[in-house]
Amino acid sequence: MRARDWRLPLSLLSLVASAALAADDLAEAKRHFETGQTLYKEARYKEAVTEFEQAIALSIKLKPESAGVANYNLGQAHEKLGDIGAAVKAYKEYLRLSPRAPDRAAVQTIIGNLEARLARGVQELSVSSDPSGSNVAVDGKLRSTTPVTMELPYGSHQLEVSHEGYDTATRAVDLTPQSAVKLDISLAKKAAPLPPPAQVEKPRIWTWVALGTAAVATGTGAYFGSQARRNADLLRAAKNTPPVPDELYDASVTDQVVANVLYGTAGAAAIAGGVLFFVEGKF
């Protein structure tokens, strides 16, 4: 009696191995898909795109409808990123791989709206700011207040965000079909105006020279005046006894003249000092 041969045919082993690999690929595709969904909910759209693309690559041949669902999610992620062309492509692939999709009409409407945006050549620009409610001007024209999302033509634009009490912020923005642009701008408070510089009073040198001269002249004039009065008193006491009265008279007259000149000099110096006090400090 021949022993039973338990060895499987090579072709059957190959089929078993292929099935095992396919199961692994589908399991891996599911993990990438679920990771992509988590990243999408966290608004990490670029990373979500990578995960959905890997899920599609692993499932496209083994389970086309699963790849179709992944394409729908891929389209949503691209739409969030503002890559309109990539979003349209992903949505169309979803409809191709899922011919019985219950939301076909809704997805076709989405595709139509996105293609209309592509035809108009516009892209989304979203602007938020701190403080909120700031004015947003694009290319010199006031458009709205923050937060705001607007559609602008492709190309370069000059953005200005302003708010009372804050410095105006300017940004250069380039819009392309591949990506929407989101800006979050913090405005800096305007600096408090500086106080006017303190005026340093300049020394009034000539003022004090004039006033000093006036003081010296006044004191000296007072001395000669007193001398003139003393000689006059002596002259009256000596009466007409020569020659002393003549000398006293001459001395009295001389002292009085000198005193008057000094008093005049003191007065002029005092007036000059007063004028210089107000004038000299300004120059």
Topology at a glance:
Elements: H1 10-41, H2 45-59, H3 64-81, H4 84-97, H5 104-120, E1 122-130, E2 135-138, E3 141-145, E4 148-153, E5 155-162, E6 169-175, E7 181-186, H6 205-238, H7 244-279
Helix pairs in contact: 1-2, 2-3, 3-4, 4-5, 6-7
Name the features.
single chain; 283 residues; alpha+beta; Serine Threonine Protein Phosphatase 5, Tetratricopeptide repeat; Immunoglobulin-like; 3 domains; 4-stranded antiparallel beta sheet; 3-stranded mixed beta sheet; 7 strands; 59% helix; rod-shaped; disordered N terminus
Describe this structure in words.
The protein is α+β, with helices and mostly antiparallel strands. It folds into three domains: 17-116, Tetratricopeptide repeat domain (Serine Threonine Protein Phosphatase 5, Tetratricopeptide repeat), CATH 1.25.40.10; 123-186, Immunoglobulin-like, CATH 2.60.40; 205-282. 59% of the residues lie in helices and 16% in strands. It is built from seven helices and seven strands. The strands form two sheets. A four-stranded antiparallel sheet has the order 3-2-5-6, with no helix packed on it. The protein has a three-stranded mixed sheet with strand order 4-1-7. A hairpin with a 2-residue loop joins strand 2 and strand 3.
